[in-house]
Structure formats: C-alpha cells, structure tokens
Design goal:
The chain contains 21 helices and 52 strands. The chain is α/β, with parallel strands linked by helices. It has a 22-stranded parallel sheet, with helices on one face. It is a peripheral membrane protein.
Length: 1291
Amino acid sequence: AKGLDPRPRQPRLLPPEAGAGRFGGSRRCGRNSVSDVESSAFDELSSGARLSEHRDSLSDDMILGTDASALNPADGLDVYGSSSDDLELDCPSAGAAKPELREERPCSSSSSLAEPGDAPPSLYVQLHGEPARRLGRDERPLQIQNDFLFRLGFKDAWRVQEEGMNTELGSLLRFYAGKPITMEITERVQLSGLYNVRKGKLQLPVNRWSRRQVILCGTCLMVSSVKASHTGKMHILPLIGGKVEEVKKHSHCLAFSSSGPQSQTYYINFDSFTEHLRWYRHAAKMVSQRISSVDLSCCGLETLPPNLLYSQDLTHLNLKHNLLPADQKLLQLQSLNLSNNQLGSFPLPVCSILTLTELNLSCNRLASVHSAVGNMHNLQTFLLDGNLLTTLPNELGSLHRLAYLGLSFNEFRQIPLVLEQLNGVERLCMAGNILQQLPLQAFRLLRIKHVDLRLNQISKLVPDEPEFLRHVTQLDVRDNMLTVLDASLFPRLEVLHCERNRITCLRVCGCMLKAVHASSNELRDLTFSTAATNLTFLDISSRHTTDCGSLRKLLAGHNRLQRLPEHVERPVLEVLDVQHNQLQALPCNLFLKSHSLRCLNASANQLENIPPSSLSEESHSILQELYLTNNHLTDKCVPLLTGHSHLRVLHMAYNHLQTFAASKMAKLEDLEEVDLSGNRLKTIPTTIMNCKRMHTLIAHSNAIEVFPEVLQLMDMKCVDLSCNELGEIALPENLPPKLQELDLTGNPRLNLDHKTLDNIRCFRIDPPSTSLLAHESVMGPAQWSHGYTEASGVKNKLCVAALSVSSFCGTREALFGVFDGDRNVEVPYLLQCTMNDILADELHKSKSEENYMTNTFLVMQRKLGTAGQKLGGSAALCHIRHDPLDSGGCFTLTAANVGKCQAILCRDGKPLPMSVIHNITVQEEYSRIRQHKAIITEDNKVNGVTDSTRIMGYSFLYPSVLPRPHVHTLPLTPQDEFFILGSRGLWESMSPTEAVEAVRNVPDALAAAKKLCTLAQGYGSTESLSTVVVRLSIGEGCCCCCCALAPSQPPPSPGLYPAPSIGLTHPCSASELSSEVSTSEMSSEVGSTASSDEPQLLPEVHLAPLLHPALHMPTGNRCALHPAFQRQMSCTPYCSGAAMALSDNTLDSEDEEPIAGVFSNGSRVEVEADIHNCQSNRTSSTEATVETQAGGITSVDNASERDSGQTKSFGCRRGNGSVAPQEKSHNLIEVATEAPCRKMGGYFTAPAQPDPDDQLIIPPELEDEVKEIIKQQEQHRSPNQQPTDYYDTPL
C-alpha cells in the first residue's frame, strides 16, 4: 500500500455482489489464483465443499474472497454422481482446456495485508473508466499520475500534488492492487455455475435431473460433471442457429437446443429468477446471430479465455481494445479484429490462419509487416491504419484476393511499389501520411477506383496520360496544400472532394461527374472540359456557376454574386442556397421553371421582392422551406407567398414588414414554423389560427401590442414575443400540452399573473418594475449590462446553456459563459452549475490570469466525473476583473475557450477575436494527434467522435483530446463597445465581422442577443443556439474614480459581525443585493450540480433603512458611474469550497447567529443595503456580511480583497432551464429548500422542504392593520434598535 500511493484515498468499492478490495479493486495474493478472464473450468469446478453456492463467472472465487482450501482439486467430489445418459464427445484434450496457472491464489477480501511469504498483488492502472492495464516492472503509479496531470495541462508541481490528493480524480485515473472485476465484463466473457441439468425430453422417465457444471462461453453451452471437468471431458452444445426457450412447467428453467437434424436439448433449472434472466438474455443473443461471432472487445483481456477454444464453429472474433500479447494463439477464423491492443510487433500466429479473409491490426504501433503475411492467400480486407509503417514487404503482392488495404495515418512518404502487384485492390486509403507530391504514374498499373489522400502535404500532382487513369471514379484530396488541381486527367471521375485547400484554378471533366465538393478554397477559375450533364451536387466557394442540366442541390453561399444566371432555373433543382451574396433580385422564372424546388435560402442579400410562384391563380409550387432573413423585403412580397401553399417553414426576420395581411396568412395552412422578428409589425394576423400544425412562432423585436391567440393551437411548442409592447394577455384555460418555451421579456407594460404558467419548461418574463429600478435608470448605466438567448435545434432538444453573473465575487467583477454539448444536455448543465464555483475558488490559488482560468477548466474536467468519460461539450468563459489594490489599474477581460464556443470583442467597431478553435487544421494540434496515433475520420473527427482537439469531457480520447483551454487577457478601454459569447451553431452560420456589424447599433443587450440567434436560424442553422451579449461602458475614469477615495490602509480581517463604525475604507459599487441560495443532492461521481426544480415566486421586501442607519446614505456627491441603488438578483449553486471562500468564521451553520438585516425563508435569503461609497462625513460600518441560518452564505464586503480569502458574491444560475439575468429576471423564484449542510467531500445533500405550517399567516382582513402597527413601532424605535420580530419571515 505504501508503494502504491502515499496519499490518503477513500475506498472505491464495487457492487456488493462483486466484492472489492481495499484499494478500490479486487485484491488477491498468494498462489494458484487467476484473473477474471484467465481462469478455467478447473478453478470453477473444484469447489465441491461449496456446491450450494452459485458462482456465475470464472473469477467469483477471487471476487467473493473464498477460502483457498475450497479450490483444492482433491476436494472436488461429484456428490450427485453421473447420469446414465452422459456422452463423451470429441473435444480438445485436457491440457488444452486447462489454463496456465499463475503463482497467485485468492485471499479473503476482508484481509488487508498479504500473508507472510506471499507475493504482493500486481498493480493495475485504469484511465477514464476503461479496462485496467497491468503496470510494467519499471512503471511507478506516482510518476504515471504526475505525467497524466502535467499532460492534462497543469503547470505547477504543487498544484499537481494537490490534484493528485483529490479523491474525485478516480473518474480520470485509478490504481488497483489486483485486477478490478466488473460483472458486465465477466458476463461477456462467460457465464458458469452448478445447476440441476436434464438431457433429452422431459417426458422420458429414463432421464433424471443431475447436478452439473454448466458454462456458457463463446458460441457453445458446456455441461460436465465435476470430475469430468478436470480431465476436459464435457458435453458441448453449439447454439448458433439453435434456440433457447423457457419451460413453463418448471420455475426458472430454460431449454437449450442445438440446430440441425440431430439437435440435442438440455434443460437447466436455475436457483433464482435473476440467474434465469441473465442466462436467458445472453443465450438468446447468441442463438439469434446469423453468423458465428463473439465480441470480447474492451474487456481488458491479457489472454484468451481457455473455454473459448471449444467454439469450433466460431468464424468472427472481435478482440479490439484489449491487452493481448503478440504471440497469442488463435482459432481458425474468417474475421479477426486485433486493433488497439498495443502489440508493438507483428503477431506471427495470425499468419497461420489460412482461412482468414478479414484482418484488422490498426493502432498497434507496428513498425513493420512480417513477410509471412504472404501465406494468407484468402485475405480480402487488411487494415493497418494508425501504425508506424514506412514500407510494405514484397510478399504482400501475393495476396491476389486483397480488395481493400488501409494504410492511413502511417509514415509513408510515397506510394508503396508493391501496390502495383495487387490487381484486386479497389480502394486505396493513405490519408494522414507524409506524401508531398502525387505522381500519377504510380496509378498506371493499379486498378484502384477510390483514392483517399486526405490530410497529407500534397502540393502538386505530377500529370500522366488520362487513358491510364480511367479506372479512378472517386478522388479525395481534402486538407492538403494544392493551389491548382487538374482533375480532368481522370476522365471517369464521379465524385471529387477537394475542400480546405488553396485552390485557385479547378479543372474537371464533366461527362461522368455527379458531385463536386470544393468549398473553403480560393477559387477564381472553375472549368468543365465537357458538359456536366450528370452533376447533382455542387458546393463551390467561387463566383462562378455552370450549366448543369441535372443539378439537384446547389450551394453557392458566402460569395459576392450580384445575380444568378438564367440556367440555374432547372426543373430538377431541389435545394438552392445563395445566402450571403449581393443579390438584389432572384430570377423572375425561378419558381415557374424549378418545379422540384423544395428549399430556398436567400438570406443576407439585398432582395426587395420575390418572384411569383405562377402566372395564374393556380400554382404547382411544392416549396416547403423559405429563408429570406436579413433582406429589404416590404409588404409587397406578402401576397406572393400565397402561391406556395405547401410552405412549412417561413423565415422573414429583419426586413421592412409593417403588416402581414390576414387573408394571406389564411392561405398558408401548412405553416409549422414562422419567424417574423425584427420588423415593424404591430399585430400578428388572427388567421394564424388556421395553421393547425403551427408549433413555433417567433416575432420578437417588433411593436406588437396584442398577444395572438396561438396558445389555442394544440401543437404549439415555442412562442417568443419578447421586446415588444404587449399589455394585457388573455390566456386560455388549458395550455397546449407540448408548450415548452414562452418568452415575454422586454415588454415593460405587460401585466401577467404567471403563476398559472409554472408547467412550462422555459418561461421568461420581466420582474415587476419598482421605484427602485426606476431610480437606478435615472442615475446612469453601470460598467456593463448583458442579455442572453437560447434556442433548441431541429430535434427540439436544448443542448446548450449560458452562465450570467453580473456581480461575481464582488460588484466590480462579472462572469459570463456559453456551453454547448453538441448532442447531449448533461455536460452543458454540469458546466453551467459548477464552473462559477470552481473559478471563484481558483482566484484564491493563483494570481496569473492564464493559470487560474486554465486550472478552472482542468478542475471542471475532474468534476464532470463519469459523465465526462463518454460525453463532452464546448465551453467559453469571459471574466471581467478589477484589482482593488491597483488604484490606477483598469478592468481586464480574460477569455478562455475549448471546443467551438467563441468570444468576440468589439473594439472601435472591429471584431477582436478572444478565442481560438482547436481542430486538425491547426498544425500544432494535428501534430500532437498524429503523435498519439489517433484516427481522423472523413468528417474530420478524432476517432469519429469530435472535431475539436480541445474540449471538455470525452476523457476516453485522452491524450489526443484535452480540456486545456486557450486563454487571452487584455485590458478594457473606452473604445471597447461590447463582446459576444456564442455557441457552435452561431459561428458556423456567420463570421465574427458579420456578428459585430449586426448588433453594433442595437443598444439593448437582450435584443442584440435575440437578433444574433434569429439570424443564425434564418441562415439555416439547425443546431441548438446560445448567445450572450455584454454591453460595456468603460469610461476614462471608471477604473480609478472610486479607488482614489480609498485610504491606504490594510483591509480588515473577515469576520462574522460588522466592524466598528468608521469611515468606508474601500469603495464598492454594489448598492443592493438580493440573493437566493438553492442546492440539490450532488454526486461525487457526476460533479457539482444545482437544483433543477421549477422556481416559485417569493415576496420581495424593501427594508434598506432597517439594516444599518449608517449604510442608508444620501444620493448627493455620488460617482456618476455608480448609481445610488442597484438591485441584483441571483440564485447560486454552492459547493463547500465556495462557502469557505465566503466565510472564514469557522462556525457550523447551526451554531451561527442570525445577522441583522437578513430575512431567511428556507434557503432564500434577501438582503437590502446601500453600501455605495460617497463623499460624506457620516460614518458607516466597514463590512456588511450576510449569512443564512443554515450555512448558505452570501457576503457583501466593501473592504474585502481576494488576498484576504473572501469572495464578495456569486452570480446566478437558471432554475427553469434558462439563465436568469440578474438585472431583469422573473426567476427571483427558487424552490425554498433548507440550506445545505457542509460535507468534507465538497458536496451537499438536499434536505426536505420546510413545513408550510411553520410560516406566519396573517388573514387578509387584518393585513392593513398589522402593517400600520409595524409602521408606528418603527417610527418610535431608536435608529440602532431592531424590531422584536426582525428575524422572523417577512410578511
């Protein structure tokens, strides 16, 4: 134990039925023991003294810690005897059936130390939950752990040591003494046990039940007596093509039958229903297979299970991601997968399998191929991807049946000459090598049809005569360095991929061409040597189109097209994408001639009208999707829409529409999704009720005054009418059952009782306006204001989240973030709930901006727990910070990102990138991935999982994919106008320049975020979207206007009670704080999470004068940049680290006394105080510390510093599936639970809700009288005296 790990670690136990050792895995010592997959029937059957105990795996003796004496072969007695109908079948010899015994024996799991004289157990390491690997003789656990953490991204040795002592690291890295056992892997290898068995028909009296050893392994059922199992004699029943049935006359009984005319049947009676179900599930999967195959991938095998050798009919064996040696003996198979086994050298035993037709040796770090490979004359598919090969043996040329050869991601510098002898090879895959030139003469003698040369360094094609290249039909040269490509040398070419090169001149032969993928180039000249009559798909990045008679899909967006040629109007054209051009009009006959057009995207152009759908009242248009966002369309185009009666999706946002005629809307009955945002509409036509299939209505940023009756449509899912002029709303009694989102923010005149809308998943509305907010607006803006928006994708699944904390760790800091889970919702939610707590904790540990932000992402990787092993997500954080000790300092903006979430700063109207996208197009990242021999698939994804090389989660892709972020820090200046945080879908739809120009003239941050999201959807984005826009008001003197007033004296130490009343020692721009604390039960394996319950409305009380008379100051002589009051709402998920950062009083929550000025209702805390620094002679307290009675803490400390270990306040997290902006939020509404109890592990439990009977209830008829009495008492009370009921729940 001392040699394994010097740090204390909590035990990680397996399920009770599996047993566990003290080191977090199975522990074994002594002699004659085997691992979970290295044991055999010998160990399983030699337990005669314990026949009544059922064991369903070969390793249960080690797992359960049975006594070693029970495994003595001499004690293995067949107490039931042998049945008279036993048959001796031909099977491998006893020697073949017995495994290789190792010098170990199982010991009791209760023993913590090895017995004297016994060898210590082997050490195993497990990464990200994958099967454990045995450590080599020279490997040291502590060194492995340090290397892992340094490679992950930690830079300081002391921080690596601190992270190594954290018990949560087990989800990323674990060490075991003895091989860890899991029931899932054990069952996949084999099932075994002692059961009552009967052979033949149940009606025959000659057959009787006997106690037999039964093993289900590979493709066979093996039955034997205990004695016969020692000699290898057993009955073998092939199950492929057979059947397994339940016997109704006997409980827990199954009938196993083989196939064929001479089939046999065995009846097995199990001891429990659980065993019966387990065996039935595995056997049913086995007999249902059409081919005889066994999948033992990802089982951590160090050798093949011996009982697998009995499966003589086995033809396909999958052994990928194991730890098998190169000299492992194998069966006569047809298909063998040995990829990712760390072989290191070519496995010679496979060359003796003459029946082999498919062999996969990818990712084994092979440096050469043995010449004996020429013996496998039946081989048809040979995969050698992801190795270290530079040459191939000449003997490979004797494999005349070889049709597919995979050589991708090796180290070839030229095409191997031996390929000229392989006449049967039709597909050549050499992606990811080091080819610099491509001499086409090498293809003369080849008969290859599909050539894959992606991700090389090819800059030139050496031409050859076209007659010798007639066999090539598909050419893929993506991600190379080509500037000129003459693909006309391939006269029968059908599909061409040449994306992401530097091609300026492209020449192709069009006679057989069907698809051209040429985006992301610098095309100036596109030439077809012959007419492209068969072309159906064209994706180009040039200013040219071509005459393509059968073109069905044309993508010509993001160019500078001013008009479309007439030949684009073709009857077979189905999809036309011409967005982001300079078109002023579409061809007048576009809809008249393109009868098959289903989707048209002409957004981001200069269109003023659209062409008619027909010349008469009758129209044959089948158009279903029409995107016209961000044009110059007026009301004149609305009547022209009626001809498209099959229209389902209509996007006309950000045009110049003033009205939408009701009679025209009535004719569009098939509409399902409508976006009319950013126009000048005052009403939505009432005839929208005719659209019975309508599920999405988006019409924000208009002047709509009357709420449409769309909530009466039963299929309605999303309604967004934010930023309008809505007043009263009449809601129906029954809301649509599918309604998930209702956004009514930005309607200041709206009066709505939203308690009836609590069942909506995402409901947004502004808080009621108060005189306090009105007074705040008069005093001028703060340094920043923000708005956010979120939108689900086509699958109606919100896979994004946003973080918005305008007052983070104090009023002079802010934190904003965007998280994108691609297709999962778990990771974005965990990032949103936990990342702000981690960042607050890291601020105390590091002074460097890069270090604290980098460490935040790395610690978050650990906090994701098991959820981050197979799932992942992008993240972008922006932290606005000001050092209070630097009187002349400025605000700094620190941005960090992984994945495809980005942050863009607008400075003087120009975009300033704050983020970097890490993918294979970055040479440094590509070199790192190549070093670790990862495979990049055709969609540019690492191992087919993610196209980002730095991303949160996906820890099973380590070390190819890391969570280390890109960090960028710069000081904010008065020229900085705003910055944008966006998810992947936003930046795939528009460039940073376009995003900045789109919202620069939109003063309201919420409306700006809405516009960006709407534009992305109008440009065709089908992904989940999340956008945060933060408006900046950084003046010339904003950084030092308050700091100059602070006297130079050290800050007071943090404490529970306020300090004596003296002058304010340090300024604080926060004026009023109202915060709620909510927690939920958090799992150490998943990470810190917050409550997901729906929020509830709680009353707001304004009692600022009662907190402290000295804090209630006049408004005169204030800083123009800091208003008198700023009300901030937040709901914070706390962890223990955050709680300790907020309070150093070292008292438990139950022992702490309530603080003056705090009203607590469950976990909700409301505080009101004006602690703004003023030039006044009045004295005030130096601190105002707020603390809940149950331990949830929110502090407002106007003299605190980060060096003193205090954090000012935390920001908000959404409670209903959406981030709540602190300034404008209806989610002042959190479920009132008890405050969490602090635990050593940093997690909290979620106690029960408070009893409503404990709350004070005043009858309505006495409410006015009670208020008057309280008011009179307050007037006669001295300034420093608190009311007797001050600590009660407020009215």
